[in-house]
Design a protein that fits this description.
- With 279 residues, the chain is an all-alpha fold.
- It is 73% helix and 1% strand.
- The protein has 11 helices and 2 strands.
- It has a two-stranded parallel ribbon.
- The chain is flat.
- The chain starts with 5 loop residues before the first helix and ends in a 10-residue tail after the last helix.
- The relative contact order is 0.09.
Length: 279
């Protein structure tokens, strides 16, 4: 066992600061960071697993009319027309013997990863920061922080608006009163997870455009010239995100993406690295 003196510890810290670590020392630091990430994710996942009732009360909230989004729209409809939205509730079913347990395990892992993500980003940034210049650290910190915030905003938008309205429309839609809707828990969870992740990724658009604008690769004038083409691309992306092909769900997803594109034009236009802004 090797015990480092104060001088040796200071020298090691100085080597880390100036980036003079060897390849194997870098691997050791990376391995230690990955172990910390794994431990933190597992611990957060265990906590989520133990609080099953609380976790699934949040996840399954959009299946009944007591959800905050439905109540808000009901109040708006009552104020505008004098009558609120009709009450509804969708009963989920399970078709597999072990499916509920498997879904519980998967959900705990996802939530554990989400809860530990700030610490994960901190460790990864701390690992790569010694190799960056001061100005690169500043831009990298902005990109990482802004990207994380935008991803969370995309997930929240999907949970509070896009998924509830989509689920209410499709979950209660009937071609005939003789055909009852029987929504499986697997379908509910899969759709919720897919839409949340994809909306989180789509919300990275302003951050990506800002970075490209800083590098001088993208200009606001270019984005304006191809605005009509971008609408087609947005519709294609929305069709990929939405689980169905109905125009209601497609429009519900396409509108926020189009707004993000317009916001990205303003962000790129104010970017210092964006020297060419021709219309």
């Amino acid at each position: 066992m090797i015990i480092l003196s104060n001088d040796n510890m200071e020298q090691a810290a100085e080597k880390t600061q100036i980036g003079e670590m060897s390849f194997w020392e870098h691997l050791d630091v990376l391995r230690a960071s990955l172990i910390k990430i794994a431990i933190t994710t597992v611990l957060c996942g265990i906590v989520a697993f133990l609080f099953k009732e609380e976790v699934f009360s949040v996840i399954l909230a959009p299946k009944s009319d007591s959800f905050i989004t439905y109540r808000l729209f009901s109040h708006i409809a009552e104020w505008a027309t004098g009558t609120g939205n009709p009450a509804f509730s969708v009963q989920l079913i399970n078709t597999g013997l072990a499916e509920q347990f498997v879904i519980h395990m998967k959900t705990s892992v996802y939530i554990g990863f989400l809860l530990s993500s700030p610490y994960t980003l901190y460790l990864l940034f701390h690992f790569i920061s010694p190799a960056l210049y001061e100005n690169e650290k500043k831009y990298s910190l902005r990109v990482v922080g802004s990207g994380y915030v935008m991803f969370i905003l995309g997930v929240l938008l999907s949970y509070f608006l896009i998924f509830p309205l989509t689920f209410r429309f499709l979950g209660t839609y009937q071609v005939s009163s003789d055909v009852a809707n029987m929504i499986t828990l697997q379908s509910y969870m899969g759709t919720l997870l897919m839409m949340s992740i994809l909306m989180g990724i789509v919300f990275e658009l302003p951050v990506l455009c800002w970075l490209l604008g800083k590098l001088g690769i993208l200009s606001a004038g270019f984005m304006r010239r191809f605005r009509k083409h971008s609408v087609i691309v947005i519709l294609i992306i929305s069709a990929i995100i939405t689980p169905t092909s109905d125009i209601f769900t497609l429009s519900l997803v396409a509108l926020p993406i189009w707004m993000l594109y317009e916001v990205s034009i303003l962000i790129v236009g104010k970017s210092k690295g964006n020297k060419k802004d021709e219309i």
